[in-house]
C-alpha cells in the first residue's frame, strides 16, 4: 500500500518542479485566490502558458480551481479563480518566501560567519583597486 503513496508523491514533485509552477505557488500563497489574468499581470508568464501550468497543478490537487461565476453585468465568459488550500498556503509561504530577518540581524549573522569584511577593510580594498588604475585596459591621460 506504500507504493501508490510514493508514486503520488513523485508525481506531485514532478508537477511542481518547474520555475513557472513554483512562481504560481508563490503568488497564490500571498493571496486568497487569483485568475490567470492576475497571475499574468504579476509577471509569471503569458495567460496561455499559465493556463497549461495551472491545469497540471489542478490535476494533481496542488491547487484548487473555483468555477467561474458571472456577475450578470460583465459580458463574456467569467474567469476561473485559483487558490491554494488553506492548509498549504502557510507551508508554501514558509518554503518559498521565508521571512527575512531584519537587515541588522542579517549583517550581524554574516559578520559572525566571516562572510562580510568590516567596512574599513572593504574601503581599503576599494582604494587599492582605484590606485591600480582602470581594469578594462583603458589608458588614463
Description:
The protein is mostly helical. It has 2 domains: 2-96, Winged helix-like DNA-binding domain superfamily/Winged helix DNA-binding domain (Arc Repressor Mutant, subunit A); 103-132, no CATH class. Helix content is 57%, strand content 6%. The protein is built from 7 helices and 3 strands; from the N terminus they run H-H-E-H-H-E-E-H-H-H. Helix 2 crosses helix 5.
Structure summary, number of beta strands: 3
Based on secondary structure, the structural category is mainly alpha
Our count of domains comes out at 2
Please tell me how large the radius of gyration is.
24 Å
The coarse overall form would be: elongated
What is the correct CATH architecture of the largest domain?
A: Orthogonal Bundle
Proportion of β residues? Answer: 5-15%
Order of helices and strands: HHEHHEEHHH
What kind of oligomer do you see?
Answer: single chain
* Unreliably modeled segments: 120-138
Task: Give the CATH topology of the largest domain.
Answer: Arc Repressor Mutant, subunit A
Major sheet: arrangement of strands: 1-3-2
Amino acid at each position: 500500500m506504500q507504493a501508490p503513496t510514493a508514486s503520488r508523491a513523485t508525481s506531485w514533485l514532478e508537477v511542481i518542479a518547474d520555475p513557472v509552477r513554483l512562481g504560481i505557488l508563490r503568488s497564490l500563497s500571498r493571496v486568497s485566490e487569483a485568475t490567470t489574468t492576475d497571475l499574468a499581470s504579476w509577471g509569471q508568464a503569458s495567460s496561455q502558458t499559465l493556463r497549461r501550468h495551472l491545469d497540471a497543478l489542478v490535476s494533481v490537487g496542488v491547487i484548487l480551481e473555483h468555477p467561474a461565476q458571472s456577475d450578470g453585468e460583465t459580458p463574456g465568459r467569467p474567469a476561473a479563480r485559483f487558490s491554494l488550500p488553506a492548509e498549504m498556503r502557510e507551508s508554501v509561504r514558509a518554503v518559498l518566501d521565508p521571512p527575512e530577518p531584519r537587515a541588522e540581524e542579517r549583517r550581524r549573522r554574516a559578520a559572525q560567519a566571516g562572510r562580510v569584511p568590516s567596512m574599513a577593510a572593504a574601503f581599503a580594498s576599494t582604494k587599492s583597486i582605484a590606485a591600480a588604475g582602470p581594469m578594462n585596459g583603458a589608458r588614463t591621460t
